[in-house]
Predict the 3D structure of the following.
Amino acid sequence: MSILVVGSVAFDSIRTPLAAHEELLGGSATHFSIAASFFAPVRLVAVVGEDFGDEHMEPFRERGVDLTGLQKVPGRTFRWSGEYGDDPNTAKTLDTQLNVFADFKPSLPDTWDRTPVVFLANIDPDLQWLVLEQVKDPRIVAADTMNFWISSKLEELKRTLSKVKILLINDGEIRQLTGRVNVVDAAEKVREMGPEVVVVKRGEHGALIVKEDDLFAVPAFPVRKVTDPTGAGDSFAGGFLGYLASLKDHSREDYRRAVVVGSVMASFQVEEFSLGRLRRLEPEEIRERYKAFLRLTRFDDLPIP
Amino acid sequence: MSILVVGSVAFDSIRTPLAAHEELLGGSATHFSIAASFFAPVRLVAVVGEDFGDEHMEPFRERGVDLTGLQKVPGRTFRWSGEYGDDPNTAKTLDTQLNVFADFKPSLPDTWDRTPVVFLANIDPDLQWLVLEQVKDPRIVAADTMNFWISSKLEELKRTLSKVKILLINDGEIRQLTGRVNVVDAAEKVREMGPEVVVVKRGEHGALIVKEDDLFAVPAFPVRKVTDPTGAGDSFAGGFLGYLASLKDHSREDYRRAVVVGSVMASFQVEEFSLGRLRRLEPEEIRERYKAFLRLTRFDDLPIP
């Protein structure tokens, strides 16, 4: 099944304890679509400015991402600047320039309204809603959000969530959204808001999925050198939803595998800046790291006493 | 095999966001020995004061812990007072009264010097060394430590570590001890100091074991109501080492199971204050929660594409 993603395409300037890079290709929709493209056809809806050149389209084209929905408008592309300390789970935003993103109105190209899988990346809940008004009978709508929208647009976010099947969210955000400290409690509360499935992204501590019939946890892959955590959550979402989109039906076991595939893609993402690692990633490496996850986590039952 | 544990027996006063209790039976050796007693005979070496009555001995006797090495001396028992906020991984110490612990010199009862498994709980590395000087040919020496000793007695701690086979340590402490941010890197560095096996306790984020032939991670059990995190690390150590002591030989799979058993015991420990949960724990509940860990974490390989 094809996946429609609506989100940001940006230039990121990033400082980590070991390096700094300016104007890297980034944004939630970018990281999501590249990761998802390993598993399913991806359709991208986003906006960029005049400074977004052909060379910036190249990584998407290499991966077969359909850019028909990428609007190029007068002005400069969205820019984000952030810094990481020793804790890779927390980015400090240094600067945000919305630029062309300030007036972004997602508009689906003809024939894309019947895309079966929809991912609403971390953007204004009002824009997420605009997308929901345009799609017809999607099989899966998944969404991400962030602290900024939870505090500034809670009612709008709740309207979006009422139509979302899968919410992907990090552990700080789910506590903020629900007021509950325990993540399983918090996930149950989210399920009352609409989503049947809640995936809690815990960065270097792994991920958790909560649904009516299942509770599943996986630790993060212990990446030896985390170069840049930017895009880890979106790559996770891309792997997770891409894997689901590659299947006709979704058993409980498929959802579990999807969480691991998401973790695999996030573990590659953080190894290099921007799209460095994912651009040269081979499907065989994905299968190998999935097996490494199996080895990392598998244990046997207790021998009968 | 029997386990010898040397550590603190204390009265704890604890505040959590939901409750406060005074003068609860606690201490590293207490939590360790009760948890370990489900799997192997436990010998306790510690010191208490005149205020430590028969009623305080009762929980140990119920679990068959051998108290021959428990010195009762003039003065008051060690007291610790601490507080937890919303983050169960971090305790704020409000007050510490060493009392009789200030002059504690661990002294092994006759015949205990040949105990095959030794646990040096989180006490002064000089006292840990005193124990090491008294034991003869132990099969396994395991140890815990804390930030206070890493910053104030690093050389003494390193001397102890040179004789330790298994170090159990939390993730903040292993970073402090090694100066390395990545926990796998940090564990490798610890292995250069002596321990062959490093178990990183990550509280609500689970545990990791690093040995020459293995790397294994398990998420924490998502306990719905964490009442009091005190003693979780020591109960983990008790379950982990108790399980190993119940076996003649230790395969890679046995070490993995031991990490899960430790996680099981810690997950029970935090459900109630002090020894509340462990005093009425049944072996069948341990096996059931172990199976719950299997269900929580198991996933299948990818279908061949």
Notes: The longest helix of chain A spans residues 252-269. Chain A has a mean pLDDT of 96. Chain A touches chain B through 39 residues (CB under 8 Å). Chain A has eleven helices and 13 strands.
